[in-house]
Structure prediction request, 754 residues.
Amino acid sequence: MMAELAFLFGVTRKLLGGLPLTIELVTLSVATGALLAVAMALARSASRIAAVLVSFYVFVFRGSPLLLQMFFIYYGLGQFAAVRDSFAWPALRDPTFCAILSLALNTAAYTSEILRGGLASVPSGAIEAGRAVGMSRVMLLRRVVLPLAIRQALPAYSNELIAMVKSTSLASIVTLMEVSGIAYALVSETYRAIEVLSCAGAIYLVLIVLLTRGVWLVETWLSPAGSRA
Amino acid sequence: MRFLRPLAAAILFAAPALAPAAALAKSYKHITIATEGAYAPYNMHAPDGKLIGFEIDLGNDLCARMKITCTWVAQDWDSMIPALNAGKFDAIMDGMSITPARLKVIAFSRNYSQSPTVFLVKKGGPLATMPDTGLAVSLDDKTAADKAFAAIKPILKGKTVGVQVATIQLNLLNKYLKDTVTIRSYKTTQEHDLDLAAGRIDAALASTAYFVSTLGRPGGNAFVEVGPRFTGGLLGQGTGVGMRKSDPELKAMFDKAINAAIKDGTIKKLSLKWFKVDISPAS
Amino acid sequence: MGNALRLVGFGPTGWGGTLLEGAAMTLALSVCAYLLGLAIGALCAWGRLSGGRAVRAMIDVYTTVLRGVPDLLVIYLFYFGGGQMIGAIAHLFGATGFFGLNGFMVGTIAIGLVTGAYQTEVLRGGYLAIPRGEIEAARAIGMGRLLMLRRIIAPRALRFALPGMGNVWQQVLKESALVSVTGLAELMRQVNVASGSTQLPFDFTIAGFALYLALTTVSGGVFMGVERRVAHGERMARKQRA
Prediction:
């Protein structure tokens, strides 16, 4: 039993070595994805052609597995000499970049839909009221539309954030050694799959529970009167 | 109390780690053999999805000799050994080398093939001039091994080498070249081939028998094998059939069948068919 | 390009047939996993709504864990540990030998359990959306518990839960790709195998995209059709009432 606990402890310590990379993948891809999503929401309202393109993009990325998307970006694009000779190759050559790119593109598709839902939920009365008191477009967006939309979209977005933390576990297929990448390497070294995978699962679980609490705090803070209605 | 719930959840989640192992089945009329289907020409998938290759032919021949029937399943390389011990199948035939580390967790039949480990690089690339190309180096011979690595370290300095995860080749890199090269590990050898072609890695390290398939594919003539041909030491004693330690009877059956297949030239014949060279063990 | 078309196509050297078989396997796996998840979700939603403290706490732990651990890890855990667990249970009843779960069973159970956690929330939400008056009315006219469940609660909750159930279905379809790690010959696996063998990952991932999009689009259409029918039926009923 002692030896067993020592083994589990050793495994957990090794797995935690991958935590910084996991967190890096999550933060960079979530940030990029959010920016992309906002850009797409703006583009959608700006031109018809852009709206069609954005819809197609969302359709493709929401309709296919992330595993396939990552495989495509890492291995698929590298198949062509034209890509390998292009300006983008120094970035695409790097597995970390490819992982962040595919995670960001994936979450951007989902986030843009969530954002759209949030924006659609803003009552037209609130906007009219803002206009009536003479708010400028920017001010209206900052003080009325965005807070209401974000408040509405936050529960869905928090689910998306959780999904992203879980999705980073796929980055191991493009040779990255984040928490689950290390887990798979440890499985093939120690041949003790269940113990190693359970430890890895526990790490993700703690990470996600903390994240859920964090989002809950933000939600409370955003809701009227600073408390849950 | 709120913080206790995730803790309880985490403990509950780790509980299966302490579950007891299952007992074993002991009737050998029928066995299931796992292979990767991605390690040509040892084993591969045909376009119709069927498994073919040297080991499929050999395994079927061995099963006929043992008078048992066998079915094949495709299985990822990196989970091969834990899945064997979890009872997903009864034997592994996947170019798996017999090594001291693996012998701690599973049993092996006698070897049925032997092939040295070598670097594959792009023709005309910076590593194409690696010294000692073609020189046979046994890692059992410490002086020869040290001399060989000293000779290739300067040219490999700072380069990235791709290798399949959980292989003897990865062990070789970890032991001898860890401080010299950046190691990148892949789920399959085919994936490091893709990255070698794409230029994400400078060299791939695998067995010459596997590189037969890389070199034989369209575009394969862009690559060349360089550096010493390593054998022995942590590279083990050739490839054998992997089995659970609790199946000594099955191991005895395989040993006998492989000995017979070596004696009557079957392994040599299959080897020439799939590899174009003879990789059958001497005796 | 001609070469690539031949490889993705249906000729003797083409992988087209294999890819289509993979897509069929993906569909079969998804349907089984979805049905299992639906059953689990219904049970857990019922437990959360009317169970005691202990039952509610257990369901809480289940949904927290399954939603907090990467699905790939859950699949691997079932792959390596599922047989052992079932074996241990079977040994209690005197059975011996291995209880191997093949990739299909592992995938069905793992994805069923994961999406069961989501389905729980969806179905609970559907139940809570039923106007209280309808349930009270049913009770008032003396409907029994079972009859009420069959005639009022189930159909009404289902109607409110349908959009969420559609989302879970899409999630199941995409998650089934992860089961490729068990060696099950579903679509993602076949794309991988073909990419590796031919060293043409671009062509085969594009083919993979096309097949997955076809699956998600067509099945999404089916869900929308059902939703529309239900909504239509409701409108008709309202008209008759008016």
